[in-house]
Amino acid sequence: MKIKIFMLWVGLLLFTTNISAQWAVFDPSNLAQGIVNTTRQVVQTSTTASNMVSNFKETVKIYEQGKKYYDALKSVNNLIKDAKKVQKTILLVGEISDIYVNNFQKMMADPNFSVEELNAIASGYAKLLEQSNDLLTELKGVVNISTLSLTDKDRMDIVDNCYKSMAEYRNLVRYYTNKNIGVSLLRAKQKKDTERILSLYGNSNDKYW
Questions:
Q1: Which of 83, 99, 101, 188 has the highest CB neighbour number within 10 Å of its CB?
Q2: What is the pTM of this model?
């Protein structure tokens, strides 16, 4: 896998000079869309807490496959500036998936959320993930060799805008996560059960408000 990733980024070096690189054989947009699709299935089919946990296993499976890809991608070094910006943009998608999957697993174990509320939260994640994947698809079109009508500067501008927008989505997913956890903490405070909920999500209380 690491060899494949390395070869991808050798190709992306060409992207920064003659704009003729191709997208990865292992398409990260497929990973992101797979998480979106399985999340929607969770929302559509989960009626009980145990049912939801069981259904979410497929999302976790796709996430773990993607994590291997992103971990290998992180090890690719010595890229020139523009290729590194593409790398960072793709890695942000991995970070978004990481925030979602790890925190939603904790939310499913949180007694302060009903199944209906969890389904609503998952729907919100699915929408944010799909929007970030749209940016990844746009980036794919820029990197793809078949997109011949753009100048080098046009392509570099799109790459830069994709990176900035993806970073905003990452921050939005983090904010959305913390606000939902904040709701649980407020409910826990009313029940005098704050310590247990902080232990579930982590003790950095300030970030949830």
A1: 83
A2: 0.83
